[in-house]
Structure formats: structure tokens, C-alpha cells
Write a structure and sequence with these properties.
Layout: H1 2-21, H2 26-33, H3 51-55, E1 59-60, E2 72-73, H4 75-137, H5 139-154, H6 179-187, H7 195-225, H8 240-268
Antiparallel strand pairs: 1-2
Helix pairs in contact: 4-6, 4-8, 5-8, 7-8
Length: 299
């Protein structure tokens, strides 16, 4: 490769001088014989594994007439560096732009999911408020029914104290829900909310859990009270203490529910931490409270 490179460069130099001598006319040929060709330059061809191959080849400049020196310029090497830096800057800028756009899309997606989660929780709080308000509306009838049962127990001294067919009724407990809030906790959205929102939701759902627990206990006590519907001939006087205990527990739990329900409704009526103020709405209960109906069917 080295000898081939030398012959190529020397041939180019000869052609340059031959073009200046003209055609093959005899007089011109004689004149050209007095032209001194420059010596062959010892130029090595750069290997493909040479580091300079990456930076650009050193290109020999054209021979000047009468000059035995060969000039070199490295403009292509410098242009190679500038081109490399330009391409590098374009790639880096493209990557950074793509990352920024991806981050912006992810942030917008997270904000949308966060907004949907908050709206779902607010909807669940509204539903629980409606349920609590419905149960609170039954409180007066429940208390009146408990007073009637207490009077019945006071007059129970024999097997014929009261007949079968009494209607103790149902207190109107409908249960509360926290599924959307639990889903928010499991997905990690809760930790992304503001401290004010976290405190507000934690306090409300703690109250919801307490109310729901007491309502479940209340239902158990009312089921025990409904034993009276069998009549005094079907149940013995020995069961009277058990029924009296259920009556006492049902009254205590009813009082607790009244206070907790009032606190829950009062809290939701005030806007707090990005949550709008809520008002109770009519709730379509699947099982209606029936304590407002007469206990005895005198007709």
C-alpha cells in the first residue's frame, strides 16, 4: 500500500506539469524537458486502525511550480472534531428532550390519576354521609321502641305476659364503605397527597370505621331483642336477663352512634384541604328501618 500511495501522488504531480507543457508537440516536449519535477514525497497511507483515521486524513496540498516542499493542512481533522461535537450535542439534546417530555407526560398522568382518586374518595365520603344521616333519622323511633321493650320486660312475670307476633323492628343500620380509600392506600396515591389532605382523610375514615363497628354491634343486639317476637309462651323467664342485657347494650350503642354521627356530619359540612363541603342527601336503603311502625298489631 505504501508504494502504491507514492506512485499515485507522483503520477498526480507529473500530470500537473504535463498539463502545463501542452500537447505532444515536439517543441513543447523539449521545453518540458527543462522542467524539474519535485522529488517523490515519502507519504505513508494511514491505516484503518490508525487513530488519525477517526480524526480525518492528513491531505497533501498541491505542488506549487518550482517548489520542492509539500504543504499539509488538517482542516478535515478539525472539521471532524467539530462535526463529532455537533452530532454529540444533537444526540444529547435529543435524549434530554425525550426524557423531559416523558417526565412531563408521566407527571400529567399522575396528576390525572391523583385527581380521579380524590374525586372517588370525596364521592365515597358523600355516600357514607348519606348512610350516616339515614341512620340518624331513625334514632328517635329506635329510642321509642327501646322504651317500649323496657316496659314490656317490666311487666313480664308469667308465660302469658305478651303474645307472639310483636314487631320489634330493624334500627335502619346500613353499614359504611371505605373501599376507595383502601384502594388509594394500596396504590400509594395517599402518600402523594398534601399533609392536610392526609390528615383530613385519616380522621374521617377513622371515624367511619368506629361508626361502622358500633353499627354492627347494634345489629347483633337488635337481633337478640327480636326474640320477643316469639311471645312469652315460647321463651322462658330465664331468658329475660339476656334480653335485658341486649336492651341495655342497644341503648348504649344507639347513644354512641348519635354522638359520632353528629361529629361526622359536622366535619363534612365544612370544606377542608381541597375537599368541598358536603351535605347529606336522601339515601335509598335496601333494608328500611322499621322501628317507627307499631310494635303491636292491635287490628
Amino acid at each position: 500500500m505504501r508504494s502504491a500511495g507514492k506512485r499515485t501522488l507522483h503520477s498526480k504531480s507529473a500530470n500537473h506539469y504535463a498539463s502545463r507543457c501542452g500537447s505532444d508537440d515536439g517543441s513543447l516536449i523539449k521545453r518540458c524537458l527543462h522542467v524539474r519535477f519535485p522529488p517523490k514525497a515519502d507519504i505513508s497511507v494511514v491505516s484503518a486502525f490508525d487513530p488519525l483515521q477517526t480524526l480525518g486524513h492528513l491531505v497533501a496540498s498541491a505542488w506549487s511550480p518550482g517548489d520542492n516542499l509539500m504543504r499539509f493542512h488538517v482542516s478535515r481533522a478539525l472539521q471532524g472534531w467539530r462535526g463529532f461535537l455537533k452530532e454529540y450535542a444533537i444526540v444529547v439534546l435529543g435524549v434530554l428532550t425525550a426524557l423531559a417530555l416523558d417526565q412531563a407526560v408521566a407527571s400529567a398522568h399522575d396528576r390525572r390519576l391523583g385527581k380521579q382518586a380524590r374525586e372517588a374518595i370525596h364521592g365515597e365520603l358523600q355516600d357514607d354521609l348519606d348512610r350516616v344521616a339515614y341512620r340518624a333519622e331513625q334514632s328517635a323511633c329506635n329510642e321509642r321502641r327501646l322504651n317500649e321493650i323496657q316496659a314490656l320486660l317490666s311487666s313480664w312475670h308469667s308465660d302469658d305476659a305478651f303474645p307472639a307476633g310483636l314487631k320489634v323492628g330493624f334500627p335502619g343500620t346500613v353499614g359504611l364503605s371505605d373501599q376507595r380509600w383502601q384502594a388509594n392506600l394500596a396504590s400509594g396515591r395517599f402518600s402523594e397527597e398534601t399533609p392536610g389532605e392526609q390528615a383530613d382523610q385519616a380522621g374521617l375514615y377513622t371515624l367511619i370505621h368506629v361508626i361502622d363497628m358500633i353499627e354492627n354491634k347494634e345489629i347483633d343486639q337488635w337481633l337478640r331483642l327480636r326474640t320477643l317476637e316469639l311471645g312469652s309462651r315460647s321463651i322462658s323467664l330465664q331468658s329475660k336477663p339476656m334480653i335485658a342485657e341486649a336492651l341495655s347494650q342497644a341503648r348504649a350503642e344507639g347513644e354512641a352512634l348519635k354522638g359520632l354521627s353528629a361529629a361526622f356530619e359536622s366535619t363534612l359540612r365544612k370544606a377542608e384541604a381541597g375537599r368541598a363541603a358536603l351535605r347529606p342527601r336522601a339515601f335509598p336503603a335496601a333494608v328500611l328501618g322499621s322501628t317507627c311502625e307499631p310494635m303491636r298489631n292491635d287490628g
